[in-house]
Amino acid sequence: MCMFTFCVLLFFVAPYQCMKCPFGCTCFAATNTVKCVSKELRAVPLGIPEYARTLIVTGNNIQQVGPDSFPELENVTNICLSNNRITELGSHTFSSMTSLRSLDLSSNPLALIHPEAFSIPGSPLLELNLSRSLYNSTSLTDLTTAMRWGGLAGLILLDLSGNRLTLLAPATFSHLPSLRQLLLPHNSLASVYNDTFSGLHRLELLDLSHNAFRVFRAEALEEFGRLGKARFRLGRNPYLCSCEIHRFVAWLNSFVTTRVVDSDDVRCASPRGLRDAHLSGVGVRAVGCGVPAHEGAAEPSLQTSYAFLGLVLGFVGMVFLFVLYLNRKGMKKWLTETREAGRDVLAGYHYRYEIDSDPRRGHSSAGDIAGRGRFGSLPSARLPPDTCDVVQMPTDTRLKQVTMTAPGN
After folding, report:
1. 38-89: per-residue pLDDT in tens?
2. What are the angstrom distances between the C-alpha of 10 and each of 14, 381, 400?
3. E strands of 19-69, at which residues?
4. Cα dist from 26 to 36, 55, 62, 204, whole Å
5. Largest CB tally within 10 Å, which of 154, 189, 303, 312?
């Protein structure tokens, strides 16, 4: 009897469910799921059952979606629209889906994104997948504007992988204060600048793997430091292991190494001698500096030696200054004596200068020269008796005596 009743119910209920399911879709009431996969649909099917919580529409030919594409779907929490060749997202496309938590738009060539395309009352969206969906740089600009004005303040996960991104403008994600996971793998990013990730105070995971990073400079490492305790995926990048990368190597070898969850994949791509070497295991002096990689292990001991040498030199300097302080009186006396000796030498030179510049010494010398010229070079020549003979006394007495010799005396 029970079996018969069950079969009767199944007979009447099953057609009712089939009648409620849109054309080209498969409905699963038990899991509250509706699937419309690879049916060459040109629009999102209408008449989605009210019990649907998950809507999967993939592999179709839907080029444009707008607010008319999802009427009366306030109960849907997850929607997947991947690989539908969607090129345009209209204004308030998902505004009727007030319970939407996860939106997947991956693998669509989005060329036009309206600034309010993701605007939903109450900002319920938590996960947004836009991997392999940005058609060109214009769509990236549209996305940046949409993140600013589209009401994504509650977003927790953003997937932008595989979009050929080459540059992220400063403060691109500053309007996503709740973001915890930012996925940027399989792009062409080569540099991280100041304020690239500003505003992401709650970020827990930053995926930069499979990009074009050859080195993370000091500016990028400072930006990583401002992300608090966020973890990183940095593997599978073509790192150039030259002397320029030593800061990044030191950062990897520091206490934050545990924050790089794929550190085993952070390897040198060039030069050939270090290719495929673990970057975290290569010494700072070894990377591209002509020093074999195995000598990097001696780096900590060398730093210790330099530190010890600095301490010794500092101690010797302190002892020297202390000795100078204890002998300050003797040094002052020595300086005074040296100054006095210098003054005495200068006084002697000044005295000699005064003597040499005395005009009387000049007259005496001139008279001697005239006498020699008048009387010749006779050694015993005497003056006539009627001549006055002036005898000059020594210069220190400053006295003169004049002797007059008269005839008959």
Report:
1. 999 999 999 999 999 999 999 999 999 999 999 989 999 999 999 999 999 9
2. 6, 169, 160
3. 26-28, 33-37, 54-58, 64-65
4. 6, 10, 18, 37
5. 189
Domain assignment of residue 251, yes or no: yes
Contact 145, 170 (CB under 8 A): no
Same domain for 105 and 58 = yes
Torsion angle (degrees, nearest 10) of CA 231, 236, 241, 244: -50
- Residue holding tokens 């301490």? 311
DSSP states of 230-278 as a string? -EEE--S--EE-SGGGHHHHHHHHSGGGGGBTTGGG-BEEESGGGTT-B
Q: Which of these, 94, 96, 136, lies nearest to 116 by C-alpha position? A: 94
Q: Tens digit of pLDDT for each residue in 304-349?
A: 777 888 888 988 988 888 888 888 888 888 888 888 888 888 888 7
Report yes or no on 380 lying in a domain: no
pTM over 0.70: no
Q: For residue 95, what are the domain limits?
A: 28-155
- Residue 276 sits in a domain of what CATH number? 3.80.10.10
**Kindly report the CA angle at 225 between 223 and 226, in degrees rounded to 5?**
70
Beta bridge partners of 205: 181, 231
